[in-house]
Amino acid sequence: MKQSLLLIFFLSISCVIYAQETLVVGSVKDSETLEPIESAIIHLEGTSLKTQSNHLGVFVLEGIIPLGEQILVVSKQGYNQKSYPIVVYKGKTLNINDMVLSRNLSPDNDLFTISLTDDELHDDTLASDNISGLLAASLDVFQRTAAFEFSASFFRPRGLDSNHSAILINGVAMNKSFNGRPQWSNWGGLNDVLRNQELAFGLAPSSFSFGGVLGSTNINVRPSEARSGGRLTYSSSNRSYAHRIMAKYASGLLKNNWAYTVSLGRRWGSEGYQDATLYSANSFFASVEKQFNGNQSLNFTAIYTPNIRGKSSPNTQEVYDIKGTKYNEYWGWQDGEKRNSRLKEVNEPILMLNHYWNLSSKTILNTNIAFQFGHMGNSRLDYNGTDLIDGMPQGGGSNPSPTYYQKLPSYFERNDPDHLEYAYQALKAFQSDGQIHWSDMYEANISHAAQGGHAIYALYEDRVDDTQFTINSILNTAINNNVTLNAAVNYSGLNSENFANVLDLLGATHYLDVDAFASNSHEAQNDLQNPNRLVTEGDKFKYHYRLLSKALNAFAQAQFRYNKIDFYLSGQFSQTQYQREGLYQNGGFPDNSLGKGEKMNFTGFGFKGGFTYKFSGKHLFDGNLGVLSRAPSLQNTFSNAKENHNTVPQILTENIRSVDVSYHFRSSIVKAKLTGYFTKIGRANDIAFYFADGVGGDHAVFVQEILQDIEKKHFGAELGIEAQVTSTLKLKGVASLGQFIYANNPNLLLTTEPDAEAITAGFVDGAKYFGETKLKNYRLASGPQNAYSIGFEYRDPNYWWFGATANFFSNTFLDVSPLKRSSNFNTDYDGQTFNDYDEDIARELLKQERFDDYMVVNLVGGKSWILGKHYVGLFASVNNLLNASYKTGGFEQGRNANYRELRDDKALETPVFGPKYWYGRGTTYFLNLNVSF
Description:
There is one protein chain. This protein is mainly beta. Among the domains are: about 1-100, Sandwich (Immunoglobulin-like), CATH 2.60.40; about 665-800 and about 805-855 and about 890-915, no CATH class. The protein is about 10% helix and about 45% strand. One of its GO terms (cellular component) is cell outer membrane. This is TonB-dependent receptor.
């Protein structure tokens, strides 16, 4: 009774004080308990107007409120969002008492929970590129579908890499300097404390960051703004891990103005969907906040999520046809257990201190300091261990890979077609075995050591030990009811130590640290300061260097809100510096590897603006335009940092132009959004490493491929529509149609070690320039360029729910080899065109492969129970119900780099060096049980 009187009094006072203004006031309650809901977010759809309810559940929405029919959206973490149609009259106060929200007992976010942990992309170059985490925070049906339904097919919104988005935690950018992408596993398994997110998709303005052309997401982990209570979770799956347990407790803001949140978790399994892909990950999160005088707050956060996972291999179609799509070449049996040779370990704690200062009722200053350290390792086998004989390294073992081309049936069919029994024997051997023989490597090493030799085989890891410091300040101030200013300045410094680390000598005691492929004893030295060094387990070897990065950037933004139109203007400036410091003196580059190299400086800028025009509360139109330049990533600046200081010649900042326009329709039943977009990227670079066969005739060389001055075009349309046809049934549909292409013919440069083989192949000082490639209008390998989804969701008042979607994907393309589309393709060893070169045949040989279209059906459902003050939820999903088999990506091998070799290989019934592919998962499940209190 007392609460009701207070509520009536508060609403009455609000109406009197604001009597001459246009206002929306009201209150929000829990549908079950009828208790007031504090901190519910009340948002006028199609505008930036929003407010929160107080401890009595009361809110006042003020500002420039559009007149006429509008949609009022009420939401709070842990509750189902609800939309209320309203009519606003000029100078009147609209009073809406006792709006109710029902508990959301179905954990939709668990769909994206597993996406962030298991759908890491195909290889190390793309392993952090999963886009689902970027999108899952949004309530837009298109973006939800892209996160939940499309991510398993490695769909990229607008065909763009995730380095075009900014991911922040408490206002601190988390994107890696090395490749510009977020390392999702740095906070994996902490989903319950990461749900409070602010997403600005595309060029839309953000209060925290200028963002990229894919937008920005700020994850708010402040304990004072977390929903109080606890949650225990157990999950089972056959995707990446078998089991997951999580525990989380948040105090909320206590009477003494302290607040804290703690979360613990573990995910593990001996293998996921692919063979021998072990998974072991622990998660720890602790955050404590103290508020002072109601105006200032200090928040300390620690995040630690060490994890190890086994990788799976891309394979040729020949291999998949023999072994199936779950096959993984990276493992073999050892002592009765599956041992994977390719493990990825991430161990990078994050410490963060945040200061929040309400300078006034309209101005907030947020200052942050963050420190991240630790290591990341990727293991692999080395089979080139040697001994010194007459001063030269000699020896080495056979390639332990079971899919090495000389072990497969196609090799024998090509080389000895008159004796197909050899191919048959290879087929049967691969069918019955086809895995790494760990015991053979141990036996070879032990036997060789008994004769005084060094290790032939070794397991090592490529290690990256990053130490990064970040400090920034973010200012948000409301000048008046119409104008808001946002500004930020940010500095980050990175010291990245890179080296190879001996993990296991496989029965041997030491390894000779030299380059087995060098042409003389001087060039063979990985470190001339320590020639012919013998290393043991735990030692650094092969290469050792640091990458140093400093980045300073600032942005300012003004947002304007009026009755019929909202618009914004935003600008950014950045200064970036890179430098390499060599800790080894490489024998192949004695004068260009040790010590500090040249400092590389890049100046970037960005300008963007946009508007939203409100025809009415139901019909809105918005547009955004952005022009920006940014520094290339560390990854694409140094051409071969393992061995030398060399950088991409005449490297420049990357230029980006982007525009999008959208139409929105919103009613109490139907929500729809139609968007058209165009993005052009220029002056981009890409560096790849591979063994090229057929360079300068028939020569084979390990190269660094530098593709320079790349232009790309991304354009298309997006449609998302959902209809709440009844109180329990929702229909939804999504379509994404895009075309993502090379827009020019970028230049190609190959570099390698300047040895005798390279000179014979036409390299000068270790470099060979091929001029323009012929890549224009080839499709970019960026996942399905067209994707469609249709589905429904039924939510019963008795707290059970069920949903199904059918998703269709098309226009997925193979990643093409630039070298095959350069002058090397038709040029013989003498520099002349092949005398048997045929343009028509060449055109067919170089035609880009388009994968088959496919459909994936997914099911989700759950049931929840209220047990006193506790909530129990059971959630299950089945992905790819019909067990569709489909390719998600692939690439052409660096072999067969010229016309004759490619023609002869493709003429075979089974090519020896066909493309390598990744396949999507078949039918998988995810089961989740949680208890909230």
